[in-house]
Amino acid sequence: MPVDKKKYIEISKTLSEKKVRLVAVSKTKPVEDILEMYALGQRDFGENYVQELVSKYDSLPKDIRWHFIGHLQSNKVKYIAPFVHIIHGIDSEKLLAEVNKQGKKINRKINCLLQVHIAQEETKFGLDEKELSTAVQSIKENKYPFVKICGLMGMASFSIDTILVRREFKKLKLLSEKYAAALQENELLLSMGMSADYNIAIEEGSNLVRIGSLLFGSRH
Ligand SMILES: *Cc1c(COP(=O)(O)O)cnc(C)c1O
């Protein structure tokens, strides 16, 4: 399926009016599709497999900002540490420590988002509230000087129950407000919302959405 250019132009215009950042999720899609969207001005792309991300980084323009949005295994951090723009899925302190270690090796402070478990499904990754609080405390104590926490990320339940989805986004927004002062960044990012639920996410305070299938067509 080709890139839906009309849809891209429409969505990116709406989002920029609302000051919401768009990460175009290009996982499983060929570099040709990414280049088509790049030609329309898109620079932020999201991937969730390390190998695929590294190979796309190698073959595509260097002004693309690559977002790692999947579950990241500690032993693979080193492959993306030199170039990744933001790691969205920090879901354990072990991973935080590893990102810090790899950042230190190459003297690069790496942008990260703490992923919070807000959905009902057990299958989804993320810190629970207690782990989040502990991680924020460690960051405040400057335990990870080569990590820059830019905000929070979360995924709502995969459900047609919009009341449930909205409630989960609301919870993440509240948490981001709770920790805003502690994280002390100028612009605290709140990465929430995908093709199916990005409108609700924005209504609930998202300022970064990760949209794949709506722009690139469905994945097989
Ligand atoms: C695949 C993926 C997306 C995009 O999903 P779509 O439904 O295709 O928009 C967003 N976030 C994460 C973490 C993903 O893995």
Features:
binds pyridoxal-5'-phosphate, 8 strands, 9 helices, alpha/beta, eight-stranded parallel sheet, globular, 42% helix, 220 residues, 18% strand
Helix percent band: 40-55%
Q: What is the CA-atom radius of gyration, in angstroms?
A: 17 Å
Structural classification:
alpha/beta
| β-strand number | 8
Mean pLDDT: 95
Quaternary assembly: single chain
Strand content: 15-25%
Summed up, the helix count is 9
**Unreliably modeled segments:** none
Largest sheet: 8 strands, parallel
Shape: globular
Hetero ligands: pyridoxal-5'-phosphate
- What order do the strands of the largest sheet run in, or round the barrel if closed? 7-6-5-4-3-2-1-8
Distance between the termini: 10 Å
Secondary-structure element series? HEHEHEHEHEHEHEHEH
Task: Describe this structure as you would to a colleague.
With 220 residues, the protein is an alpha/beta fold. The longest helix has 22 residues, at 162-183. The N and C termini lie close together (10 Å). It has an eight-stranded parallel sheet with strand order 7-6-5-4-3-2-1-8. The protein contains nine helices and eight strands. The mean pLDDT is 95. Pyridoxal-5'-phosphate is lined by residues 25, 27, 48, 69-70, 155, 194-196, 210-214.
